Amino acid sequence: MIISTQCYLESGENWLMLYRNKKQKDPNAGKWIAAGGKLEPGETVDECAVREVIEETGFKMNSFTKRAVVQFISDTFDDEEMHIYTSDDFQKICEPVSDEGQFEWIPVSEIFNLNLWEGDRLFLKYLIEARPYFEMRLEYRGDHLVYASLDGQSINI
User: Fold this and answer.
1) Residue 22 clears pLDDT 80, i.e. is over it
2) Which one-letter DSSP state was computed for residue 16?
3) Minimal CA–CA distance to 8: which of 96, 105, 138, 112?
4) Tell me, what's the pLDDT at 23?
5) Residue 97 and residue 113: Cα distance in Å, rounded?
6) Cβ neighbours of residue 13 under 8 Å, at least 6 residues apart?
């Protein structure tokens, strides 16, 4: 199982989102996601979140909050355990080196108008509502979400 992080940077009523449109053979092609990536050997998930945000955005998070752990189970892609963070306390320290797509500040009120994974719509709702820490399981058949649970309880999709 892949272990990864995603971090949503918040500035006022805007969140920094990445439109994935640069990598070849990208399972996220055409989707909007947050900054993040895979855990490297010897790295904690917190360290991974900080490193990935710096590499992809040029921002250093001064503080952040772990908001959720989401398991993605798929019949097409590798299973993934994603640790999700938010931060509204960051500063620009360098130029980004992302080769995955374009970052844009998106008004929170417009996030659900973006091309998102079905499961991302579920956990983003809880992040935007400022729900306390939660755990979610999302099961996909191809690109289609077929099952979701929140804190061990099945939820309607």
Assistant:
1) no
2) E
3) 105
4) 65
5) 27
6) 107, 108, 109
**Two tokens at 114?**
């973006």
Element (H, E) at 139: strand 134-141
Average pLDDT over residues 101-120: 96
Measured distance CA(93)–CA(110) in Å, rounded: 28
Say how many residues make up the chain: 157
Whole-number mean pLDDT of the chain?
A: 94
DSSP E strands, 32-133: 32-33, 35-38, 59-74, 80-92, 101-107
pLDDT at res. 100: 75
Contact 146, 80 (CB under 8 A): no
Six-digit token string for 21: 């449109």
The reported pTM is 0.93
**Vertex 111 angle, CA 65 and 39, to 5°:** 40
Rounded distance between C-alpha atoms, residue 147 and residue 23, angstroms: 28
Say whether pLDDT at 88 is over 80: yes
CB 43 within 8 A of CB 55: no
Q: Give the helix, strand, coil percentages of the chain, each rounded to 5.
A: 20, 50, 30
Contacts of 44 (CB under 8 A, 6+ apart): none
